[in-house]
Amino acid sequence: MATKSATKTKKKWRSRAVTRTVDAGNSAYCAVCDELIKFRARIRADQIICNVYVANKWDRVEHFHPECYKKAKAPYGNPAD
Fold first, then answer.
1. Which residues contact 1 (CB under 8 A, 6 or more apart)?
2. Between the CA of residue 61 and those of 52, 53, 81, what are the distances in Å?
3. Quick one: three-class SS letters along the chain?
4. Phi, psi of 35 (to 5 degrees)
């Protein structure tokens, strides 16, 4: 009787970035300039949000102004929409 291999491959988690609009009541600070990412009622501003994984485990979330993320040379890759 043939047996199937019981080895499972674990998913490799990696840090990633997404672009999201800044919501009212946002209180996140930019990881580069350390300034508040502000909501403005008349201006639809975006932010970059990154899930950061260390040693294949979730570690933290980092927020960026889009221009600061570019200045940091997109440390978590191109942001998805």
1. none
2. 6, 9, 17
3. CCCCCCCCCCCCCCCEEEEEECCCCCCCEECCCCCECCCECCECCEEEEEEEEECCEEEEEEEECHHHHHHCCCCCCCCEC
4. -105, 150
Q: What is the pLDDT of residue 43?
A: 87
Handedness of CA 36, 68, 66, 14 (dihedral sign): negative
CA distances from 73 to 19, 25, 45, 66, 76 (A): 15, 28, 20, 11, 9
Q: What is the largest CA-CA distance in the chain?
A: 69
In the chain, pLDDT over 90 holds for what percent of residues? 69
Q: Edge-to-edge, what's the strand order for the sheet holding 46-54?
A: 16-21, 46-54, 57-64
pTM check: above 0.85: no
